[in-house]
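re: ur question from yesterday

yeah so i grabbed the chain u mentioned. its 578 aa long if i counted rite. heres the sequnce exactly as i have it in my notes:
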Amino acid sequence: MADTHNSENQSEKPLSLSERIENHRREIQYLVKQGGEQAQYEFKRTVFLSRENLDERLDFVKLVQSMANAEIATERCIVVGADPKEKKFHPVTNASDFDPANLSKILGAYLDPLPRFQVFNLTTDESDPFVVISLDPNQTRPIMVAKAGQTSKDKTRLEVGDVWIKRNTDTVRATRADLDLMYKVRSEEDAEDRARKRLKHLLELATPQQTQISTTVVPTFALIVGPRDDLKRFTEELVAANDLRRFQMLLEAARENLVEGWDQFEVLQFEISNQLLLNLAEFYKNQFVPVLESVVEVALLSIKHGVGQDWIKAAISLLLESFDVTRTLNRLPLGAILRTGSPILPWWKPAFELFIGVRAIAIYAVARKRLSYLSEILPRIVTWEAENGIKRTRTPILFWPFRPSPFNSDEFRQGRAYYFWNQRVGAAWARYFGNFTKFVEASSQLEFLLEFNSYLGMNTLKDPKYQAWLQSSVATDIAFDYVPDLYDDDLRSTVPMAEHFYDILAKGTPFPAYLFVDARMPGQVFGSWPEARRLQIYGDFLRHLKAWQESYRFEGLRRFPFMWDWDGRLGTTARASK
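ran it thru and got these structure tokens back, copy pasting raw so excuse formatting
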């Protein structure tokens, strides 16, 4: 029999992300004030996840596994920084431990599959910070222990194959009946999915004239921040129907957050209050980042399915508009700390996350050998204002616009690609790249392309005639200097892109415009030179790149050069240019 109450609720508008967060915030405060335990919420006064706290880390992994496996049809939440027994909050001082990328790394090391979760950094009405780890009600259960975990005293806390489950407020091993139920639910879902596909196929056969997919849902903010699989299905329907207009509507819904969402914060006021800083941090963590991840997701999906250039242009334009807007945050103190002891949102952080997103899209275009999409990214010039407008820089977005850099030199010692993967890409979009190694390989090919653009843009060839053309035809305030992310590994990953450039030069055909910041540069450099001269110029670049890597590693990083060199026709070309 249908549940009348539930049927009525289905027609209600889904809660927005901000409404969900506020409901959790109020409910948690109420439960802490009343005291006692509750099945949907698990309260922890403190949790430390560093390697020095191995016991707590393993206990936390076990807790997440048990709650993700629980038979609860709603979100399940772990609250860190609250104690219902004491009826008080204990401000969280290690919020960075709960960064989604860090949690994914820890949980993924022990659990298979990785539980679906979100992290919210919230504050009480009295401004006490606490953390909520929200577990999606739709998990791929059973979630099992894939790697044994031993405590610092060699006591086994997690055994391979263990399935822990939360039953009411107790953590217990799953019984045979629990596992049968989990597999039964999964098999029923698979059967329902197959039935839907069969029905769709039969309908298509019955009405062959209706080949376009019906995409009647108006894209909303709830779709953007909701389950990622729903967004993926919706985007794929848009691609199949070639519905660019509805795709633009989807991006417009995201724009309300990425661009207009910052309007609520008066960051240009003379005095910046603690409450403003807290509100900024909450908006960034709980709204800006989820929306950004979704916009990049739909762009990656679009490239995957080979959409028209206008689709990628629309997504990149939105991300760069947001990048420009976030420059207004440069009035925020770079290293300020709240009176509670919690670090604020660094003013450059939103722009940096946007930069990683644009980078990920470009790297994916390279990985899929769909370089023409770079025409919507590579020529885009952005302006960067350092803290308090001390310095302004105009440079291509795929270069490094953060000058002076807010990072210290140690953060990129393993390469920027490694940092980008751990910072955001691995947790948000790993499935598009396959694994870290493939991501780095495609990233290295992009770096080769960017360094070639820098080589021409700075006239490293020392050609007086070309220099005169640059000064008269290319904006002189665009910074073409660039340090390629090609120092932590040898250059073998760049070979596919290097070979591609060689083929173009050997054939004597014009370079495609999508490979350059300014499409006129290669024509001015290579012009109508015969093949031998074109390859000599290219050989100079290959030799320059290898010499730069050796010098940078030895003088900048105190590391030995790689025992590797260009091979085959690339090696012949590089040696002939000496």
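noticed a couple things. The chain has three domains: 11-181, 211-406, 441-472+493-578. also Residues 1-12, 208-215, 334-342 have pLDDT under 50 and may be disordered.
anyway ttyl
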